[in-house]
Amino acid sequence: MAAQLRADARDNRERIVEVARVMFARDGLDVPIREIARRASVGPATVYRHFPTKEALLTAAFADEMALCSDIVEEGLAVCDPWDGFAFVIARLLEVHALNRGFSRAFTSEPAGLGAERDRSLRGMLELIRRAKDAGALRADFVLEDAILVLMANEGIRADSPQQQAAASRRFAALMLQSFRPDPGGAPLPPPVRLPLAAR
Amino acid sequence: MAAQLRADARDNRERIVEVARVMFARDGLDVPIREIARRASVGPATVYRHFPTKEALLTAAFADEMALCSDIVEEGLAVCDPWDGFAFVIARLLEVHALNRGFSRAFTSEPAGLGAERDRSLRGMLELIRRAKDAGALRADFVLEDAILVLMANEGIRADSPQQQAAASRRFAALMLQSFRPDPGGAPLPPPVRLPLAAR
Fold this sequence. Notes:
homodimer; mainly alpha; 10 helices
């Protein structure tokens, strides 16, 4: 009986996460908890028992995407050439984020509810930025906020299909990467802006 | 009596346009007509009598912004140096669009309902692009879609206040402009993507 209850609870939890994953990805982060509960055929109280906050639910719903981002950053850090590693990470992150608007919005929001894993990714990004600057391959006035700016901007791109979305993001990423190169003759950039994102 | 009726109709029309302008700017283009009618204290039928389609309402609501964009393009075309003219237009359009998400979404959507005025702006953009390329100041593989891509991307940027939004857009514009410069040593860009936008 207790085992059955535990199995039911586990099934409920999995169903809630699955529904949340689909709804956040499709409709963004404003989906009401009661709507997620309804589609998962549970009461709102059951959702809150498993996930006391929306952040907890976001973390569970986007665990795979967040892990993928961390892997991408790790892979970039393992590349010998600092610019190649940095460029690989920017291009891949934009591609992954382009196909999941809800995840991208969570990643670039504060509080994101993606917790320690996102912080780890951002620390990896900072290291990639440092190395690429030291190599003289990345403009000296580049800051982490510029990477967030580009991820946000990527969210604004709309195309007619996931394939076109990914293709548009690839072109956008290639353009952005050129803009991140040192520009000795260029005018200084306007100052960076503190964006709604906490972790450093 | 007839004059009074005409005056009432004119007042209704102005109120509808004013409400639509505020709601589209704040909530995007998905605001239901019945909601606009309710806030303007008229029936939906009155809205439809003045504006048979949502496109007609968009055109009226964003007439000022659209005229401003046309003026910006005209001003850019009057600049002697082709790159300076092009860069001025990109930077100013991003600034204007950053402060009105609803207008920006309408401008980059199909059908936009911004009609002949938008088409005129886009034709002006094409001329700016042609001149800047002829001067060797703009990368040869730049296409009009890239300008639309950047306007869309600009919509994705979120900051905590209109001032920060404008500042973030300025930095973004400066980065994008560097990316539009010829890049003799660079790899070719991934191909452009047909974006949801009609007029040529």
